[in-house]
């Protein structure tokens, strides 16, 4: 039985989805993959269904009715994984900004080390980002600095979306109480793990911006992160923040 599942949310990832699936399933360690597709008009889900015939025991698909947000896609995937016997549950992008080979390093940090959360970190050993304009690098780096200052978390890459959670972390966190749906979702999950006293380890990775497809970043997502973190911290200070 495979003990690890990689959750990959998709929306219009027809250019990447077959390559990412085949790369993950070709690794020396066995992983299952769950694709959570938000009704992609480009046929992403249809491509996954074709690939399921090739990988019937390791590739799974959840189709949602519309574009409902990154956070809810992961929560849907987490609940699906917790209904099964997976011990290690991963988040990963479909666009190769996260190197599939690093999945094994994240897995080992949790399975062979003492950590309950392993974060593929762009900033723990400097700035390891490829193909981003300097303005976006600065925005992302300063956002993580800001979150670290506000929350007190000893995590350099607070907005990272390349993560391994041990099962016990997701069982502890009340997934129905997660407030954020955009990239601030990543901050909230780490913060709840931090408040729950789980050990978070950052594994240095090189983040490479997508070369195919289009980014889903928006001003609304950034605003959610900036102002949401303040509300989150204030609630935790007054014991009104539910983990």
TrEMBL record:
Residues 6-173 form the Glycosyltransferase 2-like domain. Pfam families: Glycos_transf_2. GO terms for molecular function: dolichyl-phosphate beta-D-mannosyltransferase activity. InterPro entries: DPM1-like, Glyco_trans_2-like, Nucleotide-diphossugar_trans. Keywords: Glycosyltransferase, Transferase. It comes from the Bacteria. One of its GO terms (biological process) is glycolipid biosynthetic process. Gene3D superfamilies: Spore Coat Polysaccharide Biosynthesis Protein SpsA, Chain A. GO terms for cellular component: membrane. The keyword Transferase applies. Belongs to the glycosyltransferase 2 family. PANTHER family: DOLICHOL-PHOSPHATE MANNOSYLTRANSFERASE SUBUNIT 1. This is Dolichol-phosphate mannosyltransferase. It comes from Aquimarina amphilecti.
């Amino acid at each position: 039985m495979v003990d690890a599942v990689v959750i990959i949310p998709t929306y219009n990832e027809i250019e990447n989805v077959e390559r990412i699936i085949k790369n993950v399933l070709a690794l020396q360690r066995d992983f299952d993959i769950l694709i959570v597709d938000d009704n992609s008009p480009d046929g992403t889900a249809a491509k996954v269904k074709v690939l399921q015939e090739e990988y019937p025991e390791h590739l799974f698909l959840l189709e949602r009715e519309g574009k409902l947000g990154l956070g809810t896609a992961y929560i849907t995937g987490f609940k699906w994984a917790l209904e099964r016997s997976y011990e290690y549950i991963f988040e990963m992008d479909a666009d190769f900004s996260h190197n599939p080979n690093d999945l094994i390093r994240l897995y080992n940090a949790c399975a062979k080390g003492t950590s309950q959360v392993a974060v593929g970190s762009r900033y723990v050993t400097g700035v390891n980002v490829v193909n981003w304009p300097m303005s976006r690098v600065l925005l992302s780096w300063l956002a993580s600095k800001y979150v670290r200052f506000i929350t007190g978390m000893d995590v350099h890459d607070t907005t990272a979306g390349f993560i391994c959670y041990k099962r016990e972390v997701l069982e502890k966190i009340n997934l129905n109480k997660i407030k954020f749906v955009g990239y601030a979702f990543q901050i909230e999950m780490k913060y709840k793990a931090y408040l729950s006293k789980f050990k978070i380890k950052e594994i240095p990775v090189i983040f490479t911006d997508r070369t195919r497809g289009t980014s889903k970043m928006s001003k609304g997502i950034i605003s959610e992160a900036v102002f949401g973190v303040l509300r989150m911290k204030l609630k935790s200070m007054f014991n009104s923040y539910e983990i």
